[in-house]
Write a structure and sequence with these properties.
The protein has 11 helices and 23 strands. The protein is elongated, with a radius of gyration of 24 Å. The protein has a 6-stranded mixed sheet. A 5-stranded antiparallel sheet has the order 16-17-18-9-19, with helices on one face. 31% of the residues lie in helices and 27% in strands.
């Protein structure tokens, strides 16, 4: 068997094993144990810090002892999104995969190739005995998807290398040297429940099966946001009927574009047929508006059982108006890098519980002042509506270094392997590299990875033909690292 094919096959075998292990953000205990056991079975030095980050060290191969240490880095957790109708427990059930038209996919859930493929590639290199390299450290961080917790709390001295290859990118043939910073803004509306008047008819209203996707990488692709779509209909209905809002929910994670949203509403019984007609017209208009990007979206309006209470009408009006008005999507494009989103915001999650409507939004930008400006715009919208608004500190961006020695090696080896130039880019998504620089300011870094599409959604898929290409490139880089 060809050596490179053997290594690529091994990567896929390891990824298959990873798919059997539950690893939602904040629950990386099992994948952490898997990594520690892997290191132990191969006689490799391994350390887990108090946050759960794991680092595995492998000595240089003969003749490479004087080469600089290279860090291969990936994150342990995965985004856990599923089709609304699918019953799947990410805490106990494995990811079920299948191959279709050259792509590896999951049945109704996220695939977890973000960043399970990064883990698998790093472990395959640690395991191999026929790859030339200097000293290698493989760092596996926790809770990247929900705030880069592992990278932020990485203990000093965990990494010895000065060159780091992040394995969390999603486009083969592209080498990333910069990323956006980000932060979350959380909004709370408190309300006193009101009694629904007599003679009202109850309806469940929902939009489902939108494309979704990564709130950074996919924010400029024209995908609809389910929370915004639902808010538009509720705003329209509020202006036409004495509508009462009983509950509203939509979306899940701050770094995923919402795929579904739903609300329980009540209208005077005499209006129930009229609002159904309105809903059908609205659905047709939205389907036409997003006919290119949202080919599978489903609108539903169904009769519902009566409930006694609804959200205070004045608060409900402010919630609906704010959700309709708040900025969502691209805020500004980069003036330095053609085609790069500079600043964006995602209306990520809405929930109703315990006399409170809570909302989570996320802001990203490669320019710190612009990140704060879009945060201010989002906060101002909700504060004018009477909500409480709190933002976290967020995480820093990663400023590109076009004079990077690691980048020079990566471009040269890619050109030699594939007889074409790689694209050197920055990405609007958040990577852990910016946080690493806080504790390790001398790191020389790049980010690479196989081609993924639909990440952070059940349409996530991996282009299988790109796996051996990225692995070959990675092996070539390791072989070229200088003393």
């Amino acid at each position: 068997m060809d050596k490179m094919k053997k290594h690529a096959d091994r990567v896929m075998d390891i990824f298959a094993a990873i798919c059997e292990i539950p690893r939602p953000s904040g629950h990386e205990e099992q994948i952490g144990k898997f990594l520690m056991d892997f290191a132990g079975s191969h006689g490799l030095e391994c350390v887990m810090d108090k946050t759960g980050n794991v680092i595995i060290r492998k000595p240089a191969t003969p003749g490479k002892e004087k080469c600089q240490t290279v860090i291969l880095q990936a994150h342990q957790d995965m985004v856990c999104e599923k089709d609304a109708t699918l019953e799947h427990d990410f805490m106990t059930q494995p990811i079920e995969t299948y191959v279709e038209d050259g792509w590896l996919k999951a049945r109704g859930t996220t695939l977890g190739a973000d960043d399970g493929m990064g883990i698998a590639m790093a472990l395959a290199i640690l395991e191999a005995d026929d790859i030339a390299h200097g000293p290698v450290e493989c760092l596996f961080t926790v809770s990247e998807e929900t705030g880069l917790t592992g990278a932020e709390n990485l203990e000093p001295g965990m990494m010895n290398g000065k060159m780091l290859i992040n394995l969390d990118s999603e486009d083969e043939g592209e080498i990333f040297i910069g990323c956006a910073g980000g932060m979350n803004t959380r909004i709370t509306f408190d309300y006193k429940p009101q009694t629904v008047p007599a003679g009202y008819f109850f309806l469940n209203v929902s939009v489902d099966k939108l494309h979704g996707g990564h709130s950074g990488d996919d924010i400029d692709k024209g995908f609809a946001n389910a929370n915004k779509i639902l808010a538009r209909f509720l705003c329209q209905s509020m202006s036409r009927y004495d509508m009462r809002l009983c509950s509203i929910s939509g979306g899940n994670l701050s770094n995923a574009i919402p795929r579904d949203a739903q609300a329980l509403i009540a209208v005077p019984s005499a209006c129930k047929e009229s609002i159904r007609v309105d809903f059908n017209v609205f659905a047709s208009q939205i389907e036409n508006e997003f006919h290119v990007t949202e080919k599978e979206m489903v609108f539903r309006m169904e009769s519902a059982g009566a409930v006694e209470e609804c959200i205070d009408q004045s608060v409900a009006k402010n919630i609906i108006l704010a959700l309709t008005a708040v900025h969502n999507g691209v805020f500004a494009m980069s003036m330095d890098v053609k085609g790069l989103v500079e600043t964006s915001s995602n209306l990520a999650r809405v929930r109703t519980e315990n006399s409170q409507v809570s909302i989570v939004t996320s802001q990203r930008s490669s320019v710190e002042s612009a990140k704060l400006a879009v945060r201010q715009a989002v906060a101002s919208c909700f504060e004018m509506a009477g909500a409480k608004v709190v933002s976290n500190d967020g995480y820093p961006g990663w400023t590109p270094n076009p004079n990077s020695r690691l980048l020079e090696i990566s471009v040269a080896t890619y050109r030699e392997l594939f007889s074409k130039e790689p694209k050197v880019k920055a990405i609007h998504a958040g990577l852990e590299c910016g946080l690493f620089l806080n504790s390790y300011p001398d790191l020389d870094m790049i980010s690479v990875g196989p081609t993924l599409r639909g990440v952070h959604s059940p349409s996530e898929r991996l282009e299988l033909s790109t796996v051996p290409m990225v692995l070959d490139h990675l092996i070539a880089i390791l072989d070229r690292i200088p003393e």
